[in-house]
């Protein structure tokens, strides 16, 4: 009985430790992956960590270009119905990062001025509150939720709450239709030092990296991978306890 209680205590402790270490809250400056069904349905989001830290778990520097390889943390049984976008925003400095729909494309252009990011600031506040209601770095829900990415930032599609101008908003999100024929999709990541700029040349996104997304057999959020390793360690510990006692 004592051994069972001890093992149960260790299990609870490991789960709590893995949760506090792995479940980071969605926040400014974090690169967020969003996958959602365009015609209504599921929405998935994953917080990949602070974009300024370089996403060291994923980055590769090759031929003078940052190339980032990230799994798609969502079940996409019918890829043609899904859109994929990555973005990061800092409301204190108005820095903005967002992917395009492909690697070789016309860069997205922002509207600029304060009016151009009012919707982005209010939209991310509400969306992060929704995502953080699940208490982790991974969110799954419905696009019909009022504070979903689709409703707050993508409507009209690809506009980042009207931060991206209408002429180039189609260049912001990628369709996963190509995953029907390939396991990967590559997008450019663009950067705007100041999303409130009124200078025409500064409104054009600067390509700073490429992001290649890929599907796995069973997409698993990184937080759950960390928790799984802790539980594997627990199993080994229990075996040692049985041998020693």
Protein model, in words:
The protein is an alpha+beta fold. It is built from four helices and ten strands, in the order H-E-E-E-E-E-E-H-E-H-E-E-E-H. It has one domain (26-228). The chain has helices spanning 2-22, 118-132, 149-154, 222-244; strands at 30-37, 42-50, 59-62, 65-71, 82-90, 95-99, 138-142, 174-175, 184-192, 206-214. Strands 1, 2, 3, 4, 5, 6, 7, 8, 9 and 10 form a ten-stranded mixed beta sheet that branches. Helix 1 runs antiparallel to helix 4. The two termini are 13 Å apart.
Describe the secondary structure blueprint for this structure.
Layout: H1 2-22, E1 30-37, E2 42-50, E3 59-62, E4 65-71, E5 82-90, E6 95-99, H2 118-132, E7 138-142, H3 149-154, E8 174-175, E9 184-192, E10 206-214, H4 222-244
Parallel strand pairs: 4-10
Antiparallel strand pairs: 1-2, 1-5, 2-7, 3-4, 5-6, 5-8, 6-9, 9-10
Helix pairs in contact: 1-4
Question: In summary, what is this structure?
Answer:
The chain has 245 residues and is of the alpha+beta class. It has helices at 2-22, 118-132, 149-154, 222-244, and strands at residues 30-37, 42-50, 59-62, 65-71, 82-90, 95-99, 138-142, 174-175, 184-192, 206-214.
């Amino acid at each position: 009985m004592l051994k069972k209680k001890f093992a149960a205590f260790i299990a609870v402790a490991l789960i709590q430790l893995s949760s506090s270490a792995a479940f980071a809250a969605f926040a400014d400056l974090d690169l967020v992956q969003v996958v959602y069904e365009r015609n209504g349905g599921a929405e998935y989001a994953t917080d990949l960590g602070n974009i300024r830290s370089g996403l060291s778990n994923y980055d590769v520097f090759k031929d003078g270009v940052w190339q980032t390889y990230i799994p798609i943390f969502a079940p996409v049984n019918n890829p043609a119905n899904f859109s994929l976008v990555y973005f990061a925003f800092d409301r204190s400095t108005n820095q903005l990062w967002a992917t395009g729909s492909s690697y070789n494309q016309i860069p997205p252009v922002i509207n600029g001025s304060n009016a151009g990011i009012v919707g982005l600031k209010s939209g991310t506040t509400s969306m992060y509150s929704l995502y953080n209601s699940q208490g982790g770095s991974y969110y799954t829900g419905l696009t019909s939720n009022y504070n979903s990415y689709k409703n707050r930032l993508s409507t009209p599609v690809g506009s980042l709450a009207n931060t991206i101008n209408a002429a180039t908003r189609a260049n912001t999100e990628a369709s996963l239709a190509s995953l029907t024929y390939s396991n990967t999709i590559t997008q450019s990541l663009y950067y705007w030092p100041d999303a409130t700029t009124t200078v025409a040349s500064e409104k054009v996104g600067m390509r700073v990296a490429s992001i290649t997304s890929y599907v796995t057999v069973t997409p698993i959020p990184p937080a759950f991978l960390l928790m799984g390793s802790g539980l594997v360690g627990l199993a080994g510990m229990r075996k040692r306890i049985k041998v020693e006692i």
